[in-house]
Design goal:
The structure holds two protein chains of two kinds. Chain A is 7% helix and 42% strand. Chain A is mainly β. Chain A has a domain at 36-165: Beta Barrel (Lipocalin), CATH 2.40.128. Chain A has a four-stranded antiparallel β-sheet, with no helix packed on it. Chain A has a four-stranded antiparallel β-sheet with strand order 5-6-7-8, with no helix packed on it. Chain A has a four-stranded antiparallel β-sheet with strand order 9-10-11-12, with no helix packed on it. By secondary structure, chain B is mainly alpha-helical. Chain B is 65% helix and 5% strand. In chain B, a hairpin with a 2-residue loop joins strand 1 (145-146) and strand 2. The chains are: A mainly beta, B mainly alpha.
Amino acid sequence: MKNTFRKPHIRIQVFSVLALALMLSGCTGGSSLMTATSWPGVAVNDSGIFVSNNQLFAVNPDTGSVIWQYPVEPDRNIQFYAPAAISPEGDLVAGTYDNSVYKLSGTNGAVLWTADIAEDRFIGAAVIAGDLVIAPSADGVVYALNLETGAVVWKFTTGHAIWSAPAVNGERVYITSLDHTIYAIDLQSGEEVWRYDTGFSIPDSPALYEDMLLVGTFGNEMVAIDKNSGSLLWSVETEGWVWATPAVQDGIAYFGDMEGNLFSVDLTTGQLIEKTGYDGAIATTPLLTETTITVLTDNGEVYVRNLETGQPIWQSSIEGDLLSDPVQFNDMLLVAPFKSDTFLKAMILDAGTTRWELAPAE
Amino acid sequence: MWNTLILDPMINVLLLTYQTLGSNFGLAIIVFTIFIRLLTMPLTIKQQKSTIKMQELQQSKKWQDMQNKYKDNKQKLQEEQLKLYQEIGFNPLAGCLPTVIQFPIIIGLYQAIIRALASTPVQLLELAQHIYDMIPDSIIPLNNQFLWMNLGQPERLYLSFLPNIGIPILTILVVISSYLQTKLTTPPSTGGDGGQGAMMSNFMSLYLPVLLGYFAYSYASGLALYFVVSNLLGILQFAATGRLDFKNLLPSKKES
């Protein structure tokens, strides 16, 4: 064997095979069988904070300590990234990157049921509507499950992957797909009511405002659609992809684009009110309070500004990429950095000071 | 440097191919693999010629005599081999150079396919950093569906009468085509090195199909599709030189 290796042809051949093995191991991220990574998802209810970051963590809001986690140890076959839906009883429903939906006890993380139903990951969050769980999958199918049992009640198939959470309003489910289309579906039957093709992929959920649905697209525009008829009301051009759902308040929509612009648009007329430039792509929904707007950029900057005047209140730099939507819990602003030593940071919304941070266990 | 010169051009050509072929990523992988194979064909031919020349040399009486004469003195044997190379003007490294040059192209091709698949938001954000302005936004992200496969997922075929058993068709094709390519395009060892070359050749013909089969079974089927197409093209390319010998598939006779 030793002499054979001295032959240049053989040596190069063997080297090539080994290098190929190493290279393939490192660059095949398109598979669900690899360790899947995404940014964390954060969900809150009146009393608790729940973070999906590979495992699903219940976090003590006062101290930032973990109350329970599921699974107890990281498991490459059970990976949560989408924010959990929280039932009125406080239980959690969340899809995983291994094609299943779990219902967990909000008290102790015990598994109440699992539904191994999809052919691809659950990237978008599930939503609870009455006794149904509406769970969209990257296999392009919207699954309606019985909240008590996890049994499939109906399925609705779109033409491409779904990465967004559905919006439910009354008896309608509104879902966006990467097939460029927003669909209105009957909540009880799963039958299609209407569809509207925007011509470009829609990565995030629609925002609801009165009789209007708002969706951002990869076609560099924000589109407003009549939620009853599915007809186009107006559209606003942006400079880059619109990745995230707009935030809506007092007749104005606030949304960012991947070129780092924040837009405010009059919802009645579709007229642009203001465009403000930021240093970094905006891939999240701004957080609105009565007086402030919080904008995250992908390069780790947190901006809190006066909603009316746009004057800066505070700004903070955080290690990691900010791709998860900011969430408010009482007086705290929760941000979940990606590619960071910490995966949840609680800051005082008014002041920007850090209250606690949550890091993976050693 | 790597992204600018290799990866980004490959990703964007792949995306343009996808667009031209009616948003069919399976066809885009096939056509793009053929394109890259054609591009690297001169190097492949040079490598094959060098391998054949080496094979002929090892079959010569002079080489065999030298092996017998210096079988107990490896250092002297190497010196004599080098002398013989110089005498006949053969550079054993000439066969390695095309492989070395091809290697970054093959790595780039793998990476381009994997990145273009972008089946999660994180992967799409990474892909977005590599896309030229000329690529229309309407094709992003790519539609990964091809025949019965989701090219971003490991492939399994479920038949109506076997609904619970997924048959990994592409994995089977990868293993068979890899084995065929290794066997058909690697000339049988002459035994001039005491049988070690044959041992290594057998090792390669078994190890490579198993390795690629494992990747095909476990990872995105877009990659497995590339393996199959690439293997078949490799066999076709070798067949074009007129040296394809199906006897290589038979077990070699042991030397007495």
